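Exercise 3.2. Students should predict the tertiary structure of the chain below and write it as C-alpha coordinates, then compare their answer with the key that follows.

Predict this chain's 3D structure.
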Amino acid sequence: MKIGIVDYNMGNLASVKNAFKKINAKAEIVKDADKIKNFDKLVLPGVGAFGDAMEHLKQTGMDEAIKEFAKSGKYLLGVCLGMQLLFETSEEFGAHKGLGLIEGKVVYFDKEKVGEHKIPHMGWNKLFNNNSLLFKGLENPYLYFVHSLHAVCDDKYVIGKTIYGYEFVSAVNKDNVFGFQPHPEKSHDEGLMILKNFVKLGE
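Answer key:
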Protein backbone atom coordinates (compact mmCIF):
# COMPACT_ATOMS: atom_id res chain seq x y z
CA MET A 1 0.00 0.00 0.00
CA LYS A 2 1.57 3.27 -1.15
CA ILE A 3 -0.05 6.49 0.05
CA GLY A 4 0.95 9.75 -1.61
CA ILE A 5 0.71 13.14 0.10
CA VAL A 6 0.56 15.93 -2.49
CA ASP A 7 3.12 18.70 -1.93
CA TYR A 8 2.00 21.97 -3.53
CA ASN A 9 3.60 24.39 -1.06
CA MET A 10 0.42 24.79 1.01
CA GLY A 11 0.60 23.61 4.61
CA ASN A 12 2.60 21.44 6.97
CA LEU A 13 2.97 18.10 5.22
CA ALA A 14 5.13 16.64 7.98
CA SER A 15 2.20 16.47 10.41
CA VAL A 16 0.16 14.52 7.85
CA LYS A 17 3.02 12.13 7.16
CA ASN A 18 3.63 11.64 10.89
CA ALA A 19 -0.05 10.86 11.46
CA PHE A 20 0.15 8.00 8.95
CA LYS A 21 3.37 6.82 10.61
CA LYS A 22 1.52 6.63 13.95
CA ILE A 23 -0.99 4.20 12.43
CA ASN A 24 1.79 2.14 10.80
CA ALA A 25 0.90 3.22 7.27
CA LYS A 26 3.57 4.13 4.76
CA ALA A 27 3.03 7.59 3.29
CA GLU A 28 5.32 9.51 0.98
CA ILE A 29 5.32 13.19 0.05
CA VAL A 30 5.07 13.61 -3.73
CA LYS A 31 6.10 16.76 -5.61
CA ASP A 32 6.19 15.36 -9.14
CA ALA A 33 2.89 15.22 -11.05
CA ASP A 34 4.13 12.28 -13.11
CA LYS A 35 4.56 10.15 -9.98
CA ILE A 36 1.04 10.62 -8.63
CA LYS A 37 -0.31 7.74 -10.70
CA ASN A 38 2.11 5.34 -9.00
CA PHE A 39 0.33 5.56 -5.64
CA ASP A 40 -2.54 3.41 -4.39
CA LYS A 41 -4.18 6.22 -2.42
CA LEU A 42 -3.71 9.97 -2.46
CA VAL A 43 -4.09 12.70 0.17
CA LEU A 44 -4.52 16.35 -0.82
CA PRO A 45 -3.84 18.38 2.35
CA GLY A 46 -3.42 22.12 2.62
CA VAL A 47 -3.74 25.37 4.53
CA GLY A 48 -3.95 28.72 2.78
CA ALA A 49 -5.69 30.50 -0.07
CA PHE A 50 -7.73 28.61 -2.68
CA GLY A 51 -6.55 30.70 -5.65
CA ASP A 52 -2.85 30.35 -4.80
CA ALA A 53 -3.29 26.62 -4.35
CA MET A 54 -4.97 26.11 -7.72
CA GLU A 55 -2.36 28.27 -9.46
CA HIS A 56 0.44 26.10 -8.08
CA LEU A 57 -1.37 22.89 -9.01
CA LYS A 58 -1.80 24.15 -12.57
CA GLN A 59 1.80 25.32 -12.92
CA THR A 60 3.11 21.92 -11.86
CA GLY A 61 0.56 19.88 -13.81
CA MET A 62 -0.68 18.35 -10.58
CA ASP A 63 -4.25 19.51 -11.23
CA GLU A 64 -4.62 17.17 -14.20
CA ALA A 65 -2.65 14.40 -12.48
CA ILE A 66 -5.03 14.51 -9.50
CA LYS A 67 -8.07 14.45 -11.80
CA GLU A 68 -6.67 11.43 -13.65
CA PHE A 69 -5.96 9.71 -10.34
CA ALA A 70 -9.58 10.21 -9.28
CA LYS A 71 -10.84 8.95 -12.65
CA SER A 72 -8.81 5.77 -12.18
CA GLY A 73 -11.04 4.79 -9.26
CA LYS A 74 -8.31 4.98 -6.64
CA TYR A 75 -9.19 6.62 -3.33
CA LEU A 76 -8.50 10.32 -2.87
CA LEU A 77 -8.84 12.27 0.40
CA GLY A 78 -8.88 16.08 0.53
CA VAL A 79 -8.26 17.72 3.92
CA CYS A 80 -9.18 21.31 4.87
CA LEU A 81 -8.12 23.43 1.86
CA GLY A 82 -7.60 20.13 0.07
CA MET A 83 -11.30 19.33 0.52
CA GLN A 84 -12.32 22.76 -0.78
CA LEU A 85 -10.19 22.28 -3.91
CA LEU A 86 -12.30 19.24 -4.81
CA PHE A 87 -15.24 21.51 -5.65
CA GLU A 88 -16.02 23.51 -8.78
CA THR A 89 -15.56 27.05 -7.46
CA SER A 90 -14.55 29.16 -4.47
CA GLU A 91 -15.34 32.78 -3.64
CA GLU A 92 -12.20 33.25 -1.51
CA PHE A 93 -10.54 36.56 -2.52
CA GLY A 94 -12.52 36.60 -5.77
CA ALA A 95 -13.87 33.84 -8.01
CA HIS A 96 -11.70 30.77 -8.62
CA LYS A 97 -12.20 27.45 -10.34
CA GLY A 98 -11.37 24.28 -8.43
CA LEU A 99 -10.69 20.71 -9.52
CA GLY A 100 -14.39 20.08 -10.13
CA LEU A 101 -14.33 16.51 -8.80
CA ILE A 102 -17.46 17.18 -6.71
CA GLU A 103 -20.31 19.43 -7.82
CA GLY A 104 -20.62 22.40 -5.49
CA LYS A 105 -18.99 25.61 -4.35
CA VAL A 106 -16.99 27.03 -1.45
CA VAL A 107 -18.34 30.15 0.30
CA TYR A 108 -17.43 32.35 3.26
CA PHE A 109 -19.19 31.79 6.57
CA ASP A 110 -22.27 33.99 6.79
CA LYS A 111 -21.32 36.56 9.47
CA GLU A 112 -24.95 37.22 10.37
CA LYS A 113 -25.76 33.53 10.85
CA VAL A 114 -22.68 32.71 12.94
CA GLY A 115 -23.75 35.39 15.43
CA GLU A 116 -21.22 35.87 18.22
CA HIS A 117 -18.91 33.15 16.87
CA LYS A 118 -15.59 34.38 15.52
CA ILE A 119 -14.38 33.79 11.97
CA PRO A 120 -12.26 31.83 11.23
CA HIS A 121 -13.88 28.82 12.83
CA MET A 122 -10.95 27.58 14.89
CA GLY A 123 -10.74 24.79 17.46
CA TRP A 124 -12.54 21.60 18.39
CA ASN A 125 -16.08 20.91 17.22
CA LYS A 126 -18.36 17.95 16.77
CA LEU A 127 -18.85 16.39 13.35
CA PHE A 128 -22.26 14.73 13.00
CA ASN A 129 -21.54 11.79 10.71
CA ASN A 130 -23.47 9.22 8.75
CA ASN A 131 -22.45 5.60 8.28
CA SER A 132 -19.65 6.22 5.77
CA LEU A 133 -16.81 3.71 5.87
CA LEU A 134 -14.46 6.51 6.94
CA PHE A 135 -16.37 6.81 10.23
CA LYS A 136 -16.27 3.12 11.13
CA GLY A 137 -15.93 2.88 14.91
CA LEU A 138 -16.79 6.57 15.38
CA GLU A 139 -19.97 8.41 16.23
CA ASN A 140 -20.08 12.20 16.03
CA PRO A 141 -16.35 12.70 16.74
CA TYR A 142 -14.77 15.93 18.02
CA LEU A 143 -12.24 17.12 15.45
CA TYR A 144 -9.97 20.13 14.98
CA PHE A 145 -11.04 22.88 12.55
CA VAL A 146 -9.33 25.99 11.12
CA HIS A 147 -11.23 27.68 8.25
CA SER A 148 -13.16 30.75 7.13
CA LEU A 149 -15.04 29.15 4.23
CA HIS A 150 -17.11 26.01 3.82
CA ALA A 151 -18.57 23.89 1.06
CA VAL A 152 -22.13 24.04 -0.27
CA CYS A 153 -23.26 20.98 -2.23
CA ASP A 154 -26.05 18.50 -2.82
CA ASP A 155 -26.94 16.41 0.24
CA LYS A 156 -26.17 13.23 -1.69
CA TYR A 157 -22.45 14.02 -1.30
CA VAL A 158 -22.62 14.91 2.41
CA ILE A 159 -21.31 12.41 4.96
CA GLY A 160 -20.82 14.86 7.82
CA LYS A 161 -22.09 18.20 9.10
CA THR A 162 -20.97 20.56 11.86
CA ILE A 163 -22.70 23.42 13.66
CA TYR A 164 -20.99 26.79 14.03
CA GLY A 165 -23.76 29.30 14.42
CA TYR A 166 -25.49 27.32 11.70
CA GLU A 167 -25.09 23.89 10.14
CA PHE A 168 -22.47 23.52 7.41
CA VAL A 169 -21.00 20.67 5.37
CA SER A 170 -17.84 19.30 6.99
CA ALA A 171 -17.31 15.95 5.22
CA VAL A 172 -18.16 14.77 1.71
CA ASN A 173 -17.90 11.71 -0.50
CA LYS A 174 -18.51 11.12 -4.20
CA ASP A 175 -17.58 7.63 -5.37
CA ASN A 176 -13.85 7.21 -4.57
CA VAL A 177 -13.30 10.87 -3.60
CA PHE A 178 -13.57 11.97 0.04
CA GLY A 179 -13.17 15.37 1.69
CA PHE A 180 -12.80 16.50 5.31
CA GLN A 181 -12.94 20.13 6.42
CA PRO A 182 -11.37 19.37 9.84
CA HIS A 183 -7.80 18.13 10.23
CA PRO A 184 -7.73 14.40 11.10
CA GLU A 185 -3.95 14.61 11.56
CA LYS A 186 -4.45 17.18 14.35
CA SER A 187 -7.46 15.48 15.96
CA HIS A 188 -5.79 12.87 18.18
CA ASP A 189 -7.26 9.35 18.38
CA GLU A 190 -10.52 10.06 16.58
CA GLY A 191 -8.69 11.75 13.72
CA LEU A 192 -6.23 8.87 13.48
CA MET A 193 -9.17 6.45 13.31
CA ILE A 194 -10.44 8.31 10.23
CA LEU A 195 -7.02 7.96 8.58
CA LYS A 196 -6.95 4.26 9.53
CA ASN A 197 -10.33 3.78 7.89
CA PHE A 198 -9.06 5.58 4.78
CA VAL A 199 -6.08 3.21 4.59
CA LYS A 200 -8.42 0.22 4.85
CA LEU A 201 -10.74 1.35 2.03
CA GLY A 202 -10.86 -1.26 -0.71
CA GLU A 203 -9.29 -4.02 1.35
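Discussion points: The domain at 3-200 is CATH 3.40.50.880 (Rossmann fold). The chain has one domain: 3-200.
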